[in-house]
Amino acid sequence: MLFAPVETPRQGVSAEVPLQTRPLAVESRTMFSRRKVLVLLAAGLVLALASCTMWEEKKASAWSSATGAEQFERLLWQEVKAGNWNEVERRLAPTYVEVTSAGVRDRAQAVERLQSLSLADYSLGDLQVRPAGDDMVVAYTITLRASSGGESTLRMMTVWQQVKGGWIAIAHSETTASP
After folding, report:
1. Using the 8-state DSSP alphabet, how is residue 59 labeled?
2. Cα angle for residues 65, 67, 71 (degrees, 5° grid)
3. Burial class of residue 105 in the structure, from the number of CB atoms within 10 Å of its CB (0-12 exposed, 13-18 middle, 19+ buried)
4. What is this structure's pTM?
């Protein structure tokens, strides 16, 4: 054991106090372990931060998180307004039927008519959703505002059916709302 001299307040009296020492090998192992832990923590922090900012987060489709027929109807009109015609067509059944005062349309004719609207904005109101077996029926009033400035209010009804890939509209009817 090593001792170090220490002076006391009284003159001429000194004492020796034992020094605390560790063997050099133990101290270097401890410092190495601490450095190793610090390096691992720093590396973990860098990876965590990089993974948060390196890749964009995949956004969940609004369609995949929709839980009801009212949401499906609202999402369909959002797609129409945005001009996402592939998505609109994807949400209409291959056997889709639309009935208006002008007659009966199939899916292709219905998409063509929606494209001709040049929709600037819309608002839905008086929504009612009713189950019909495994299907859902949505009835509502819609006010359509065209890019040209024209506005029309219609009463609509859409039948939504659940299939393996989600929900699709199988039938739609619309008529001019009376003032």
Report:
1. P
2. 90
3. middle
4. 0.63
Helix (H, G, I), strand (E, B), or coil: what is residue 101? coil
| Tokens coding 136 | 């859902």
- The structure tokens listed for 131 are 């189950």
Comparing CA positions, the residue from 130, 148, 142 lying closest to residue 177 is 142
Q: By three-state DSSP, how is residue 143 classified? A: strand
In one-letter notation, the amino acid at residue 126 is D
Question: What is the structure's pLDDT at 150?
Answer: 83
Task: Report which of 157, 96, 162 is spatially closest to residue 127, judged by C-alpha positions.
Answer: 157
H-assigned helices in the chain: 24-54, 62-65, 69-82, 85-90, 107-116
Report d(CA 69, CA 169) in Å as an integer.
Answer: 10
Q: Give the HSE-up count for residue 103: Cα atoms under 13 Å, Cβ half-sphere.
A: 4
Q: Which amino acid is at 142?
A: I
Determine the pLDDT at residue 20.
57
Please name the residues in contact with 5: beta carbons below 8 A apart, sequence gap of 6 or more.
14, 15, 16
Report residues of the chain scoring pLDDT below 50: 52-53, 57-60
* pLDDT score recorded for residue 66: 75
